[in-house]
Amino acid sequence: MKNSTIRVRFAPSPTGPLHIGGVRTALYNYLFARKNGGSFILRIEDTDQNRFVPGAEEYIVEAFNWCGIEFDEGVTKGGEFGPYRQSERKEIYRQYADRLIETGHAYYAFDTAEELNKLRQQFESEKKTFTYDAEQRKHLKNSLTLSKSEVEKILNDDSQYVVRFKMPEDQLIIMEDEIRGRVEVNTGVLDDKILFKSDGMPTYHLANVVDDHLMKISHVIRGEEWLPSLPLHVSLYDAFRWDKPKFAHLPLLLKPDGKGKLSKRDGDRLGFPVFPLQWTDPKSGETSRGYREDGYFPEAFINMLALLGWNPGDEREFFNMEELIEAFSIDKVGKSGSRFDQEKANWFNHHYLVEKSNEELSDLFLLVLKSKNIDPGKKNIAFIMGLVKERVNFVSELWEQSSFFFKAPNEYDPQTVKKRWKTDSFGQMQELISILEPVTDFTSDNTENTVKTWIEQKEYGMGAIMNAFRLLIVGAAKGPHLFDIIEVIGKKETLDRMHKGLEVLGKKEAN
RNA sequence: GCACCGUUCGUCUAGCCAGGUCAGGACGCCAGGUUUUCAUCCUGGUAACACGGGUUCAAAUCCCGUACGGUGUACCA
Residue at minimal CA–C1' distance from B25? Predict the structure, then answer.
């Protein structure tokens, strides 16, 4: 059942790949919408033509697809409030900018970018900051200072102009944030922001407010970087005499070490992805790694991300999307920024990998084998997966934990040789070969029985025998239950490896 | 500089709004146990209320200040 009054949106600008902070913002919006039976809208904020990057919008859509975050309305879905790309809504914004001018809440400004830059520099040299505010606008070239006829002349001359918001003077703006509570700002410290650019496009502030109103957005859930412009947005709603949505400003994701927010560079430097999917910049050709390509499962990625800045209030840690929706609440979102922790992300991936069925894992592992040109033969891959999956965090690590199922060791770990290949080992292993040679039933249980009986009869040390045996079969002190391994590789391969091992390691002299 | 936001173990966090618990959990790390090895797993341990003042019988919790951090201060979003 839909609650038509609850409507939230995620509104990225297509300037490149989506950062995981953006994914988290979208996730919280999605969870909030689902939890409350509302709608989730994807709107593309492409009002900056200079920063537009081809492929970015497709990337965003694909990333959400991979994550399992679904939209009800938006660029790929359509809907009754479209178009959902701001560049296609150009004309709408002009009307609203005009309306603000008519009602005296905005004005035309004719100062060029160069003129303003000059002013900024001049102010800076006097250790002051230039702001286009109530004081400064009195001395600048705009429809407040110029006569009506002059303004009309410039406008008709096809000269460039922008529309600026006329920020009210000395007014206390009181805002309510769902996460932070009451926030107060005096308009005296605010400037007259540009609402409409000279290229005919609106700025974020105008487009955002107009669209949120027109699209009947009930809750604006966005990153904390927008909190400083909330007073402007609130003033805009007031100027239009529109009802305001509720606002929630999410804390930022911080770099794992040092200062500042998480950036692409940190990922490169510390070796973890900052983007959900791999991305190749169309201009520089530079490629950035992605969680998907690095082998994270989407459910692990989402689980990890959801808990970075939010928690259910109890001690649960594992959530699938459905459980997240059930548990989510905006007032359990924290106020302070969180540092990304790769160890914990890997731990989540481990958990989800172990939870996967052996069959599902074999499908993934078969791809790994194929890429290595390994023929799995008739081996029961699912069984092997069951033996090794608990030892890895990623599918890509499965090979090093299971390669000995597919090929004989070509070297013997020196550490293990030193520790486990004793003076008696050579003879004992020769003896073991003769014990195994007549065995026809090579199932794990049977070989285990046979070997253990032999060990007991001879009163050999269990550890000594098994470790030497493992060294010959695996080449190192690792791997699952040894009798399971030899069942998989079979009798011939087992004996072959033993012979070869004896040849290579030889008899260790007593010292 | 100015404005706003924030600050509990190394990290993610519970507790704060409605003051009174040895400040709880998880990751990591360390130790022990299980095991033929490694890993898993189990048990235990390590470690935090930024600082200073105030209010109060009592402050992580309420108030003020300081420090530190974050964001913003573009014809970017």
Answer: A315
pLDDT of residue A168: 94
Q: Label residue A226 left, alpha or beta by phi (over 0 means left) and psi (-120 to 50 means alpha).
A: alpha
Instruction: Report the pLDDT value the prediction gives residue A84, as an integer from 0 to 100.
Output: 97
Proportion of chain A above pLDDT 90, given as a percent: 78
How far apart, in whole angstroms, are the C-alpha atoms of residue A273 and residue A251?
A: 20
CA distances from A52 to A56, A135, A211, A289 (A): 8, 35, 20, 21
Predicted TM-score of the model (pTM): 0.93
Helix extents (H) in A333-438: 342-355, 358-371, 381-388, 398-402, 414-420, 425-436
Residue with structure tokens 């038509």? A4
Question: Please, which residues bridge with residue A310 across strands?
Answer: A333
For chain A, the C-alpha Rg in angstroms (whole number) is 33
Whether A264 is a known active-site residue: answer yes
Q: What is the DSSP letter of A152?
A: H
Side chain identity, residue A242: W
CB A270 within 8 A of CB A256: yes
DSSP A275: B
- With H, G, I as helix, E, B as strand and everything else as coil, classify residue A288: strand
Q: Choose among A418, A412, A416, A453: nearest CA to A432.
A: A453
C-alpha span between A273 and A394 (Å, rounded)? 15
**Position of tokens 């520099």?**
A121
Cα–Cα distance, A224 to A229 (Å, whole number): 10
Side-chain-facing half-sphere of A356: CA atoms under 13 Å: 26
Q: How far is the CA of A187 from the C1' of B21 (A)?
A: 46
Could you tell me what percent of chain A has a pLDDT over 70?
98
Q: Three-state DSSP class for A183?
A: strand
**Separation between the CA of A498 and the C1’ of B30 (whole angstroms):** 38
Give Cα A352 to chain centroid, integer Å: 16
Q: Which helix (H) or strand (E) holds A237?
A: helix A230-240
φ, ψ dihedrals at A20, nearest 5°? -65, -25
Q: How far is the CA of A288 from the C1' of B40 (A)?
A: 33
Instruction: State pLDDT tens for residues A126-138.
Output: 888 899 999 999 9
Query: Which regions of A187-241 does DSSP assign to beta strands (E)?
Result: 194-196, 219-223
